[in-house]
Amino acid sequence: MGANLKKQKENMDAIKNLIESGNAIVGIEFGSTRIKAVLIDETNAPVAQGSHTWENSLVDGIWTYSQEEIIAGLQSAYSDLKSDVQKKFGVALKKIRALGISAMMHGYLAFDKNGTLLVPFRTWRNTITGEASEKLSSLFCYPIPERWSISHLYQAILNKEPHVKDISFFTTLAGFIHWKLTGQKVLGIGDASGMFPIDTATKNYNKKFIEKFDNLVADKKFAWKLEDLLPKVLLAGEDAGTLTADGAKLLDPTGELEAGAKLAPPEGDAGTGMIATNSVAKRTGNVSAGTSVFAMVVLEKDLSKAYNGLIDLVTTPDGALVAMAHANNCMGEFDHWVNLFDEVLKATGCNVDKGKLYGTLLKAALEGDKDCGGLLPFNYLSGESITGLTEGRPLFVRTQHANFTMPNFIRAQLFTALGALRTGMDILFDKENVKIDSLTGHGGFFKTAETGLTVMSAALHTPVSALETAGEGGPWGMAVLASYLVNGGGKTLDAWLAEKVFATSKKTTVSPKQDDIEGFNKFFARYTKGLAIEKAAIESIE
């Protein structure tokens, strides 16, 4: 047997033994369009995975996923992971040492004292809380975006929704799943920071703001106080409970999975993105680009003002202050165009692998004119708070003299995917003089790294990197947090990541070229002016 084959067999045997001995570690993340599960080995490398595809629904004007869809998706992704483990290593996944759940942040899941969901899950994608967001931001002198859970709660109060008086507990999607698996009503501090403002000195909810909120709604005479409704805040590495027998049966209805796994504090996709890109230290940042897009920078100091909620202030999984510029829309509209091109090819008798088609189109963007030849799409499948729009209307506009080519069309789709993000990042760069030593990208936007990094670096006029592991994204980041829970050994999170996870990672960095920056700036000026067209479409087309 050759040396390489022998080493491969030894690695396979080691992973097989790890799984059979019940020491595997798993992370599961609920994204907007996919639920992914990842199993890691002793070196924190991903070795098996599973997934489930799903899509939110617009029901009575609310973007939502049903409870049944949530649980079915969880079970499907885990089942797919089990199948991958069996296929690769020939063993059954029956016991897990540590587990972590992460999901899309924010939103609103409210329950009564019996654990009954009072209203359908309201996701981060909804832009129906503008009044609440504005009033709370003014009350606290602190940015409270529309997506935040407290905005949803207060808007329900303003709307005089009858369910509010019956609330016993409200949480995020990750907090809901974690509760079902462990019985514990807790949240990792990063996810909690998207429900209600965090005091980074105490690593807990801001008590002064809680008092202000209670006083604000005191005339309603609710039986509850806000602090009683919120999940308990935990830091990365703290014990968040164990997998109960009921939780094990919920996750794996076959009954093969044993109870007893330790669970990490449930986190949001912002926090797992920070982990996946090794961006938890000050002056580091990451940008996650997929269905939505957000960029986060770990701050050296507080921002000087609230900026009307255009910038989120959240935290790392260990409680450091982070500024986040978030846009609801990114690659969703591009995916629709890819599907259309796929239909066209099939209609001509050509069957092209979807992944190859996607990659080919992304590469073509680099051949386009620097400013996209005058083309202007808007990718607004939903509303966009950062540009002041409560609804979305995907559009494509051009003059009759524009250079309408395929490379320009694709480049314009990628540029518009970052238009709202750039609006927010200009605040950090230009008004707050925020400094970044490193900015690392992850998500579907970077599937073709050369294109993703080139376009992103031009849009943010700063070097952008991709780690070889960044493609694993949030579920891997959550698995790493679960590993930190049982293997951290008292080290700080950033030190442990540097030593145990990223010590040998390879990084690709693209620095923006001046003509690419100028091209994006020219497109961005057209984009900003063209928002009037988007607003008119919302008013005129139903």
Automatic annotation (TrEMBL):
What GO MF annotations does this protein's record show? kinase activity
Which residue intervals define the domain Carbohydrate kinase FGGY N-terminal in the entry? 25-250
Q: Name one GO biological process term.
A: carbohydrate metabolic process
The Carbohydrate kinase FGGY C-terminal domain is annotated at 286-484
- Which keywords label this protein? Kinase, Transferase
User: Record's InterPro entries?
Assistant: ATPase_NBD (IPR043129), FGGY_C (IPR018485), FGGY_Carb_Kinase (IPR050406), FGGY_N (IPR018484)
Q: Which Pfam families match?
A: FGGY_C, FGGY_N
Similarity comment text for this entry: Belongs to the FGGY kinase family.
The record's PANTHER family line, in alphabetical order, gives: SUGAR KINASE, XYLULOSE KINASE
Protein name per Swiss-Prot or TrEMBL: Carbohydrate kinase, FGGY
